[in-house]
Amino acid sequence: MLLNSVTKAYVIASRQRRGDVTRTAENTGFSVSYVSRVFRGLRNNESILSEGYRIASRRMKNIDPNQA
Per the confidence metrics, is the pTM higher than 0.90? Predict the structure, then answer.
């Protein structure tokens, strides 16, 4: 199933945990700061989004404390 970049970025943002940026940077060979920029939507890199999606996709969504 092919997902577009916006969908992958949404899944990453809604399920991101501490260390995900570093782990994605290590797995892809890009710098931590560049991976962080991609996750925040300031840059576009499909391989980084795919790796971040792979890491985050199996998790439950983070709970929003404002809606609890």
Answer: no
C-alpha pair distances (Å), 52 with each of 9, 23, 30, 35: 8, 9, 12, 9
Alpha carbon 9 to its chain centroid, in Å, reads: 6
Distance CA 4, CA 9 (A): 9
User: What is the C-alpha to C-alpha distance for residues 46 and 17, in angstroms, rounded to an integer?
Assistant: 20
Quote the CA–CA distance of 14 and 12 in Å, as a whole number. Answer: 6
**Domains of the chain by residue range:** 5-56
Q: Does residue 53 surpass a pLDDT of 90?
A: yes
